[in-house]
Design a protein that fits this description.
six-stranded mixed β-barrel; 856 residues; globular; single chain; alpha+beta; 26 strands
Length: 856
């Protein structure tokens, strides 16, 4: 008790004293607080995102009890063997039911759609809204342990054929799209022109089974997928894998035996399906297995997409904090030396060494806590900025950019560690001042104990700054390469309209007339030089793909490189996106529903499937041997990037919107063929920049059919740029960290050099009195600067090479050991160092010898 009282009494004296000392040196205090705020704020901002994305648990009951069958994101619909090295991650509906039946170790096992899509939702006579929906099993909400906010949640009885079609709205969609109207519960809405009853509203804060920048607005029972998809339904296609299973295991269940059991059940099921056993597939079945992983964080789609980038930013921001801490240590060392005379006097008057150390540590910790508080403001603004940069089109994203309690604790912990770690050495050195120094004067001290630590800290700052500058150079160059690569398309004055004819009630029979009307109306707009209708537009993040089989070739075996992207387009599509033909012809008015089925292909398609051959007139099909002569190639167009801009150009073939292949016998092929007739996008090419494209497009679309709504409208430039949001974020933040490091290191070097000059004013005066010239004095100071920086650059180069290897996976078109980035960063840092050292060096050269001797 006495010790506690003594501690409180001492603290009540030390804290006011520390505050007075900081007020007496406002320049030092402000510099230290700003430096720490930037370092701690950058770390807290990144940690906010790490905690909100990588460490977040689903807002459900007992998330630790949830496990997922599968460990990677394999969106969205896949056929055949879908995992690498036999790792199955995505399942058909029938396979999900088989696994559910085989694993009583799960109290409940729910299934959810791997992807999700936009659906037209209309209530009464109101305008249709585009809402994101997700198909889920009837036990979805009970598995997660989530109840309703209003009405009821989905039940297993809703997920049965013939049951009344229902939807569950998210709280955010209910508030944003339906103004929080409670009467919507129990009412009927049209989803893709089909009646559904709104059974209930999900609770506030529930965003589904994964963190996403566009969480679902509604959940639909799996049994109703055929209602919406019609002939395109994939619910009972055993080879269409499109579901993720997530379940709640019974207490005491051992995961490893359960994983082995389900792997065996998977192989047993595959062995009974011809699609998996034919054409050499039987040999692949023994390799197939499942991986069961904790599911408390949900389906880790966004985590896998952003994980590497966030971890890299966390490391880089930590480097900024280290540089800031080194700078604070330098400031404290310089301050402790400047106060040596005062401390010597206090010791001569009887002050104890322990008391002096405690007072200086208190001042250091207080300074760090002030920096930590300011850092929280930086973190709050920084995390909001980062979220905006990373997800510019996010809607209802379930990530709170405000620092949470863990982030507050993180910032406080960093502040405390900084204060203790970097306040201990100056406190210890200051406490060893001798009382006799007060009589000699501080400038006559026989030994400066802070000189070597300060040099080491400057070297450390230079080395770490070089690491950040090199990283910034590599990431910036990578982003430039990504954004300015040759995509093979023209984007200037082009706009992409996304729409949903099926959601407006159109059937396949009505589509040809609709497409002709769209072509006519949009082509008549002022300045229009091209209108391209397509299932998917370039680089929008989605595509269809199939396995190509050339006529006369055997069916490919598992693992064959037979995949090709394909799209359905109108006759003027290539003109709209600026892609020229290489040979043959484009689609024309003679390609009708009754004429020969034709396709045009890209150059990569020819190289892959018809090497050293004339492709014109050749035939191919997809998936099954009877269809290997389905289409005839009539033209070849120049390569362009349809899919991931980081990847090489894939084989692509285009089919006309005017032709539907009717020879398929399998329901899956017939349904997919029918679904491909419904376009998703229209590319509008103008001959000049447009001021109000949105009003023009909406007016034109309403004139065609008021039920057609604009799901999305943006320039083709913006659509392409959207592929690089994460790369742009990382490049900008890395560059920002590099600039911060450069400024902090330069300020630190300037401070140390100024301190060096001030401590040696008398020596410099004597040198000049004995004939030393001003240039020689400047050279003496700069040699010291260049030595410290030179050592730091050498060490920094070694660290930079290691760091470059670490971030190599994030680079595009840049080698991990890029000499330009390394040399450029070295030159920039050296120039800033020389400039920071030249100012105090010039001040030293202007010293008047007589004044210096009088000071001495």
């Amino acid at each position: 008790m006495n010790s506690m009282k003594r501690w409180i009494r001492n603290a009540s004296q030390d804290i006011p004293y520390a505050l007075r000392q900081l007020r007496q040196s406002p320049g030092f205090t402000l510099t230290a607080v700003i430096t720490l705020a930037l370092g701690i704020g950058a770390n807290a901002a990144i940690f906010t995102l790490v905690q909100g994305i990588l460490l977040k648990s689903l807002p459900v009951a007992d998330p630790a009890q949830l496990y997922r069958i599968g460990d990677t994101d394999n969106c969205c619909v896949n056929g055949g063997f879908v995992g690498e090295n036999g790792d199955f991650d995505i399942y058909s509906y029938d396979l999900y039911l088989h696994l559910k039946k085989s694993a009583p170790e799960f109290e409940q096992l729910a299934a959810m759609q791997a992807g999700g899509g936009g659906y037209s939702v209309r209530r009464g006579n109101a305008a249709a809204k585009s809402l994101k929906g997700e198909y889920v099993s009837g036990n979805y909400f009970s598995t997660l342990g989530v109840g309703p906010f209003l009405g009821r949640v989905m039940a297993e009885s809703d997920d049965t054929p013939g049951a009344t079609a229902v939807v569950i709205l998210s709280y955010q969609a209910w508030q944003g799209e339906f103004a929080g109207d409670p009467s919507i519960v129990g009412s009927t809405v049209l989803v893709q022109a089909h009646p559904f009853v709104v059974a209930g509203i999900a609770p506030r804060g529930f965003y589904g089974d994964r963190i996403s920048d566009h969480p679902p607005d509604m959940w639909i029972p799996l049994a109703d997928e055929p209602v919406i998809a019609g002939p395109s339904s994939i619910l009972h296609h055993q080879e269409s894998n499109w579901l993720y299973p997530l379940g709640r295991v019974r207490p005491g269940t051992q995961i490893a035996p359960l994983q082995a059991k389900l792997s065996a059940a998977l192989r047993q099921w595959l062995a009974t399906r011809p699609a998996y056993t034919e054409h050499g597939g039987a040999a692949e079945i023994p390799k197939q297995h499942v991986v069961i992983v904790p599911g408390g964080g949900g389906i880790q789609s966004l985590q896998q997409y952003t994980g590497t980038g966030l971890k890299m930013l966390m490391i880089l921001s930590s480097v900024v904090l280290l540089i800031a801490c080194a700078n604070i240590a330098n400031l404290l060392l310089a301050r402790s030396t400047a106060r040596r005379a005062d401390i010597s006097i206090r010791m001569a008057l009887g002050a104890g060494r322990a008391r002096l150390i405690r007072q200086i540590l208190t001042e250091s910790i207080l300074l760090s806590c002030l920096g930590g508080l300011a850092g929280l403001a930086v973190a709050y603004a920084g995390s909001h900025m980062i979220l905006t940069l990373a997800f510019p089109d996010a809607k209802n994203m379930p990530i709170d950019a405000s620092p949470s309690l863990p982030v507050l604790g993180f910032a406080f912990l960093i502040s405390l560690i900084t204060g203790i770690l970097f306040g201990t050495a100056p406190a210890w050195m200051s406490s060893h001042a001798q009382p006799a120094e007060a009589l000699r004067g501080s400038n006559r001290s026989t030994k400066d104990r802070t000189s070597l630590p300060q040099i080491i800290l400057v070297v450390l700052q230079a080395a770490l700054s070089l690491v950040l500058l090199v990283s910034a150079g590599l990431m910036t160059k990578s982003l430039t390469n990504l954004e300015h690569q040759d995509f093979g398309i023209a984007t200037t004055n082009r706009y992409v309209l996304h729409l949903d004819p099926a959601g407006a009630g159109y059937t396949a029979e009505r589509l040809p007339a609709l497409y002709r009307e769209m072509q006519t109306r949009f082509s008549a707009l002022p300045g229009i030089t091209g209108v391209g209708l397509a299932l998917y537009s370039p680089l929008e993040g989605d595509n269809w793909g199939e396995c190509v089989i050339q006529q006369g070739h055997p069916a490919p075996t598992p693992g064959s490189r037979c995949g090709s992207t394909w799209d359905r387009v109108n006759a003027h599509y290539l003109n709209a996106i600026g892609v020229p033909m290489v040979r043959g012809r484009e689609f024309n008015e003679q390609d009708t529903a009754t004429s020969l089925p034709v396709v045009i292909v890209n150059e990569t398609f020819v190289k892959r499937f018809f090497p050293n051959e004339d492709p014109i007139g050749k035939h191919f099909g997809i998936d099954f041997v009877p269809y290997s002569s389905a289409w005839e190639i009539v033209g070849v167009f120049k390569d362009f990037k349809m899919n991931n801009p980081r990847d090489p150009v894939r084989p692509v073939y285009l089919r006309p919107l005017t032709q539907q292949y009717n020879a398929y016998k399998e329901d899956a092929m017939i349904g997919g063929e029918l679904q491909s007739m419904f376009i998703n996008s229209i590319v509008l090419r103008f001959n000049r920049p447009q001021e109000d494209v949105e009003a023009l497009v909406r007016r034109t679309l309403a004139g065609i059919d008021p039920n057609l709504t604009v799901d999305d409208l943006r320039s083709l430039d913006a659509q392409v740029a959207g592929n690089f949001n994460q790369d742009r974020l990382i490049a900008r933040l890395t560059a920002l960290f590099g600039v911060l490091a450069l400024v902090i290191a330069s300020v630190g070097l300037y401070g140390v050099t100024s301190y060096f000059v001030a401590r040696r004013t008398g020596e410099i005066g004597i040198r000049m009195a004995l004939g030393a010239t001003r240039p020689s004095v400047v050279g003496m100071v700069l040699r010291r600067v260049l030595f410290q920086i030179g050592v730091g650059l050498v060490i920094g180069m070694l660290f930079s090479l290691l760091t470059s290897h670490f971030i190599a996976s994030q680079l595009y078109g840049v080698g991990a050991y890029d000499p330009i980035a390394l040399i450029g960063a070295t030159v920039i840092l050296a120039i800033c160092a020389v400039f920071a050292g030249f100012i105090p060096a010039r001040r030293a050269a202007s010293i008047e010898p007589m004044k210096a001797l009088r000071i001495e």
